[in-house]
Amino acid sequence: MKTISQTIRRFYAIDRVAGFPALEGSPGPKTNQRGSHLHTALTRWGYRARFPNPPKAVLVRSLVRLIAIACLAGAVLVPTAASADRMWVGFHDDPMFRWDGTRLDALDRARSNNASILRTVVDWSKVAPQRPAQATEPFDPAYQFGDVDEFVRNAQQRGVEVLITLWGTPSWANGGQKP
After folding, report:
1. 49 or 66, which is more confident?
2. Of 85, 3, 2, 9, which is closest to residue 44 (Cα–Cα)?
3. This prediction's pTM
4. FRET partner for 110 with CA separation of 20 to 30 A, picked from 43, 70, 120, 138?
5. Backbone φ, ψ for residue 60 (5° rounding)
6. Beta-strand (E) ranges in the chain?
7. Which of 106, 116, 141 shows the shortest CA–CA distance to 127?
8. Contact at 8 Å (CB) between 154 and 112?
9. What residue ranges do the domains of the chain occupy?
């Protein structure tokens, strides 16, 4: 009667692989006329080629895994690369930021609340009530940018961006109609 270890060694052909001594009582490696081994663990399991061709199911499974990994990588990497470097948080309060006597304190409070942008509405009909001699010249005396200039300057001193919205066309620019 054989022991379990002898059966396992015989099944896996451990004693027939080069470099392992034969077990006691085992017949030793079987050889053909040229002296090469006829049976090894691989030939016993049916592998005859050096690199066997995997079945199609293995190729399909590998392809599906590769596509899934590529999709996951795309889903993770693309939004990160395309996202903005920061989220803009801001305030819009023209009376407080432009005309109030405590406007500097209001700008300081906005900045301490992590505001990154301040919006203001500029009424074009009030900034340029008369037609400027040279419309493309920002220093034309017809323009009245006093409070807007101060607002932009104060925001820049605090490191806050400014968003200016123009509103209200002056009568000289719209054919005499109301703004």
Report:
1. 66
2. 9
3. 0.51
4. 138
5. -65, -45
6. 90-92, 117-123, 161-167
7. 141
8. no
9. 1-52, 53-83, 90-167
Identify residue 142 by its one-letter amino acid code: A
Average pLDDT, the chain: 76
CA torsion 38-42-46-48 (nearest 10°) is -70
Q: Does pLDDT of 25 surpass 70? A: no
Pairwise CA distance, residues 3 & 156, whole Å: 89
Q: Is the dihedral of CA 52, 57, 60, 64 positive or negative?
A: negative
Give residue 2's pLDDT.
58
Q: CA 97, CA 107: separation in Å to the nearest integer?
A: 6
Backbone angles phi, psi at 85, to 5 degrees: -75, -20
pLDDT at 65 over 60: yes
CB under 8 Å to 168, separation ≥6 — which residues?
123, 124, 125, 126, 179
Could you tell me which residues come within 8 angstroms of residue 138 by beta carbon, excluding any fewer than 6 positions away?
145
Among all chains, which residue has been given the structure tokens 């999709």? 71
Residue 100, φ and ψ in degrees, nearest 5: -75, 150
Q: Which two tokens stand for residue 176?
A: 């005499």
Strands 161-167, 90-92: pairing is unpaired
